[in-house]
């Protein structure tokens, strides 16, 4: 991808968040981080050109999809131009001087709490408090000088906010990866190792989804993921998000999409981008 010398990259959360780490994994030292309050703020900032790119989590290898971001991909006209599969290692962080036995409250994002429930179940008389962000939880206990609480977040967050590690690697499973998408206002088609993401809806007739997917099967195009989301205002109707191997510019894939459009009521191209590698 042809990048400028420096690029502004928006992400949800506070500095040190996993989304920021994913951004640095993708852009390296070209990245100027821009912390935003919500996932929708990331989409809005990319759309308005306030940032050059956005980074959002889309699914976790243990706990599945982040549905809000699937819905936002449909809502906003932005493109996927890259992906990062980042190993998520959780740490229990606290202010210096706080011991594990002092901790009565643990703060973190619900996803992080779920990813660490095995460790958390072993603790006694500790209240688990969901928050909007892992890094934000760490920032809160630091700024408020909380001495009976801890936060679940990444190691980088602890370094950034000057917190002590009480426990490391508290996630349920070592193979805990989150897939992040890189968003752009401009369409950029990857040439190397491409995958493509689209959205479509089918007609409400028997065999409609089978017929839609068959356009890929007949051409031996490998499907990587399919996700369904409810259509607002149309109870029990669904929108399908599909990832498949290949570029939208490949003749085989282009022919499949041409045939698909004939049998669908709605179609949206999300992007052709290079498959991300797993980053430990």
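^ structure tokens above, recovered residues below v
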């Amino acid at each position: 991808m042809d990048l400028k010398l420096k690029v502004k990259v928006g992400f949800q959360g506070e500095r040190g968040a996993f989304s920021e780490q994913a951004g640095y994994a993708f852009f390296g030292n070209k990245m100027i981080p821009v912390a935003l309050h919500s996932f929708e703020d990331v989409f809005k900032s990319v759309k308005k050109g306030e940032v050059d790119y956005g980074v959002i989590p889309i699914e976790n290898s243990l706990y599945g999809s982040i549905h809000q971001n699937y819905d936002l991909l449909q809502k906003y006209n932005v493109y996927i131009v890259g992906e990062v599969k980042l190993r998520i290692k959780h740490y229990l962080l606290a202010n210096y001087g706080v011991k594990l036995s002092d901790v009565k409250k643990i703060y973190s994002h619900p996803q992080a709490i779920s990813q660490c429930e095995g460790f958390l179940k072993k603790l006694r008389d500790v209240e688990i408090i969901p928050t909007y962000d892992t890094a934000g939880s760490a920032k809160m206990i630091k700024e408020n000088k909380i001495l009976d609480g801890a936060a679940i977040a990444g190691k980088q967050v602890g370094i950034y906010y000057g917190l002590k590690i009480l426990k490391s690697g508290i996630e349920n499973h070592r193979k805990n990866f989150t897939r992040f998408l890189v968003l752009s206002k401009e369409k950029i088609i990857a040439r190397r190792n491409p995958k493509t993401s689209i959205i479509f809806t089918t007609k409400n007739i028997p065999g409609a989804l089978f017929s839609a997917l068959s356009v890929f099967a007949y051409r031996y195009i490998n499907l990587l993921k399919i996700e369904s989301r409810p259509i607002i205002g149309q109870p029990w109707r669904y929108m399908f998000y599909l990832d498949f191997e290949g570029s939208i510019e490949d003749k085989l894939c282009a022919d499949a999409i041409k045939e698909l459009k004939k049998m669908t009521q709605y179609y949206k191209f999300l992007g052709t981008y290079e498959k991300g590698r797993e980053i430990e």
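The CA atoms of residues 57 and 180 lie 4 Å apart.
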